[in-house]
Each structure stands twice: as C-alpha cells, then as structure tokens.
Write a structure and sequence with these properties.
This protein has 652 residues and is α/β, with parallel strands linked by helices. It is built from 21 helices and 29 strands. The strands form 9 sheets. It has a 7-stranded mixed sheet, with helices on both faces. A 5-stranded parallel sheet has the order 7-6-8-11-12, sandwiched between helices. A 4-stranded antiparallel sheet has the order 21-22-23-24. It starts with a helix and ends with a helix.
Amino acid sequence: MVETLSALLQEGRTFPPPPEFAKQALVTDASVYDDAERDWQGFWAQQALALDWHREWDTILDWQLPFAKWFVGGKINVSENCLDRHVQAGHGSQVALHWEGEPGDTRAVTYQELLDETGRVANLLRELGVVKGDRVAIYMGMVPETVAAMLACARIGAAHSVVFGGFTAQSLKDRINDAQARVLITADGAWRRGSVVGLKDIADEALADTPSIEHVLVLRRTESDCAMQDGRDLWWHDDVARQSAECPAESMDAEDLLFILYTSGTTGRPKGIMHTTGGYLTQVAYTHKYVFDLKPDTDVYWCTADVGWVTGHSYIVYGPLANRATSVLYEGTPDHPGKDRFWSIVEKYKVSIFYTAPTAIRTFMKWGDDLPAAHDLSSLRVIGTVGEPINPEAWIWYYVNIGGTRCPVVDTWWQTETGAIMISPLPGATTLKPGSATFPLPGIDAGIVDDAGKPVGVPGGGYLVLSRPWPSMLRGIWGDPERYRETYWSRFGDKYFAGDGAKRDDDGYYWLLGRVDDIMLVAGHNISTTEVESALVDHPAVAEAAVVGRADSTSGQAIAAFVTLRSGVEPRDELVEELRDHVARLIGPIAKPKTILFTEELPKTRSGKIMRRLLRNVAEDELLGDTTTLADPTVVSEIQQRAEDESSSDDA
C-alpha cells in the first residue's frame, strides 16, 4: 500500500472520472460551465424552477451593491419543499433520516413522519405566540427533533438561530440576546463520548440574562435530571405530542429571512449571518444534487457535520431534504465506542455518499488503515470534504482507504456567508488533482486578485474573491448593515472578499491556502483571534494576550497563544492548563489554545499594535520578517528564544 500511495502522490498526477461512474453521472459534459456563463442569471432561474413556488418571481436579481435580492416577488415555503411535495408525490414512506444515537439506539424517520412532527412543533410555536418574522433559538444535539424544529420555524415564517451544542452558556446568551429570540428549543442533554452534556443546565445559566425568551421547549433525550421553570418551560413529549400534525405553511417572500447563523468576527463579537428563503434553497438544492451526483431512489447520503454549523444547515437539512434524499444522522463522535464507529455506520446503512472534514480524515489516518479495512465500504460511490483545504496526502489516503480508488473525491470550498458550495468538482465531469478544489461551479464567478484588487492571472496566487452575486449569498449581518459592507465589500470595492488566500496552477485549478485575516480555521471551524484573546485576558492572572493560528497536522490550524502575566504572577505549568480550561469554559473546547507561551512583552509597533505576523513566524518556527517598525525589536527575539528553549525542554 505504501508503494501505491507513493505512486498516487506523484506530482502532477490527475484522476479523471472513473468510466463506470461517468456512465451513470448526472453531469458528464463540461459544456455546462459555458452554458451557465452565457446567461448566468437565467441559469439560476432554471435551477429555481426545480422547486415548488406559490408564485413565480417578477425579477431574477435586483443587485444594489453590496445588497442582493433574488427571485423578487416570488412566494415559496422551504418546509413544503423539503417535506410536503415529496409526500404528495407518493414518497411518504421513504426514509428521510436513518438516525443513529451514540449509545446505539436507532430510528428510521420517514418523510411522512418528519412532516407530521414538523407540523406538531409548528402548531405549538404558533400556540406560544410565535409569528412570522420572530426568531427562535435552537440549542440541541444531533437528533431528528432538531431537524423538525428547524423545519417548523421555516413552516410558520419564524427565523431560527441554531447554536452549536458544544458552545457555552455565554455564547448561547450572546446569540439569543443579539437575535432577540422569543423561544428557545433545547434538550435535557446530549450524548458525547459516552457521557451526557447537560444542555438544559447550560441553557438555564444563559437564560438568567436573556429577557426576550418567553418559553423554553425541552426534549427528553438522556433522561437526565434538569430543572423546569413553571410557566416558562414545556416538555416536548407533553406539549408537542398533543398538537395536530396538520399545519398550513406560511407563504414566504423569496427574500424573507430563513435563519440567522452566528460566526466568529474579527472584533470578537459574533456576526449574525442572515440567509433568506428562495435563493438559499435554490443553490443548496442544486449543489447538493449535482456535486454529490444524488440519485434519491437509490443513494444513502451521510454528512458528518453538526447542524450547529452551516454545513449542517445546508447539507444535512435543507439541501438533502429538498432533493428527497435518504440521509444518515449520527448523534455522537467518531471514536465512541470504538475508533471505527464511522465505518460501522457506513457498512450498516450502506452509505453511498459520504461528506466529512479533512481534520477527521487526518485523524482517521493516524488511527490506522486497519479500521476502515475491517468494514465493507463497497457501497460508497462519492466521497467529499468540507471545512478547510485538504492536503494531498490526506486526499490520497481518503481516495484509497475509504473510496477504494473507485470514488471521485469532491473537495468543496464555501463558507457560512456563501450559504452553499462555490468551488468543487462535478464528479462525472471533472478531472481531479489531490488537494485542489478544482473550479468554481457553473454560475459562480470566482477569481484571485493581488493587494491592489487586480486579477493575478494563471498561474498566480493572492486573495480569493467573488465578482458577482449568487443566490445563496448572505443578505447581511443581523442588525448591522454597515458591518456587512465593511467586513466583506470594503477591501476590493465591487468584489466580495472571502478572507481566504488561493492560487491557480498552470491548468487553472484552484488551490485554497486558508485564512489571511484574524480568523483561525481550527478543525474546519472559524475561531476569532480576538475572541480567544479576550477570554485569556478575562483570567485574573493575565495582563495581555495575543493569539495566532499555526499549522497543525490534524486540525489544519491550531491555536498558539502568547501571554503576558500580571505583576506578581509567576509562570507555571499548572497555569497553562488553567488558562486552556478557562478559554474552553468561556467559548467552548474547540477554542482551547494548543500551546501557551508566557512572555514578558508582546511585539508591538510604536503605535501599540501587536505584530501578530511576527508571532506567527515564531509559532511556525520561521525566519522573522522585518522588525524595524517595532517599538522594541528585541522583544520578538526574546520570545523566539523562549519558544526554542521550551521546545528543547519538551524534546528532552
């Protein structure tokens, strides 16, 4: 196998669509790109017609830079498109979700059952006074009721704000208060690595300071004890169960708000990314169908993300259900009870399309080839990656050990802000290069520019930009349109700046290079440097902190922190763990610094700005760049020496 991997990793090696795959693929001809480019607005209108509309649009696109409106005048309901139309077409008995609980309990939820549960939740929300335009916060684990809750909000026209179940009470509180949510939907707990995470207890801590919340709906999942407040808290099994399953869907304008999803901001204050209805559903349905070559009558699709992230919104809930997919929904982690849990699930449900993160793939590599080899993965026919760039070695390992060299690898680039996949192969038409996301999808205009905003040409590298609107693009930042303009449209004027670097090779293939701003991409999740720095400084021992991302073989980037302690506080090993745990409590475990280096001073310019570029040089063990702008150039060399001393100590 080593020789095989070495041969496959030869520089310049390409992988055309397997002939057997291409025979059955939905798209086999690259002419689709030219066809879409000739009339890109008409192309997206054609994709929108695959959905059921109450009323078709008057105008495809109204573009007032930087604000877009798609399918203006169109009326549609997302929940109906994900459920009702499939049931009405005779597919009510088709499994929508094969649910696998972490302890091993399972359920097969059909489209009819999911529609009924969605209707009951929607009726309860209406009974609680929730109306079109209100916001509902959702803080749950990976259970079918989470999907029903999202679809119930969409059904009645309330925007949902899903908060990842691994976030802390502070993070939940901030998001509830920013969105002014009226109702919180949560659970008593969620299973994670054999233990219960007390979601309701965390929620109660947040709810001590969330005046907009009127009611809390609680799902009994783990049978763990939790406090219930009279007049505010309701049990799902009591109050949802007594509702009628019949619930008329609200006719929504194409530009009505579907959801708010919070992501890290460079200021440390989370940004409420707004996605609307018609354009978003059009693009997630299109990309899910064609990027994964979905055949709804035969495929079993599994995206391993969490619904708390945009990948879960677009490629667990809305895209797959709009396309009548049969999906796997898994509650737990890949290493419980054994490190082969994913492969046992693939084998059990005969998964044919598998979508996961490069961080997970690199972890699987470390765990060994024997774990996937012990399971029958022959049902797989398409495998994908999401969340961060994938290195060629991990791509090849995935292609060989999971895909059996017969499955195209769809390496996808997109963001919370883009809403849907933007750069990706079409598996029946695109020749693949390990580590490259290949090309922008039909209808998408991406490019690479230099510091001045000028195209760099082919080959060349620089900043990845999007030069025209796309249907699933964010419509702004909740409550802050100027922040939206400043964050995404100020750097290059008429171009959306993604915050990522990229290059194109001689053949025009796109290679993503990661973040170029103050956002770190840790295990596929955006973490703000400012947010982590604020959490560190919150500790009474810390006077000042600076945080950078550094390359990590497993998570893509790891968080490296440089900390100056208050007068009288001595550096010690125990304090390192205390600070890491402090960050985890305030933000979540994903934000824990991997390394913390104590330093007397931080490198600053004469104006007082911390030079994170130099700290990245230290963290990556690189040569220092220009230090002439520093107020005290000796500071960074002292930090570098301390880092080398600590590294030597660790090696010893």
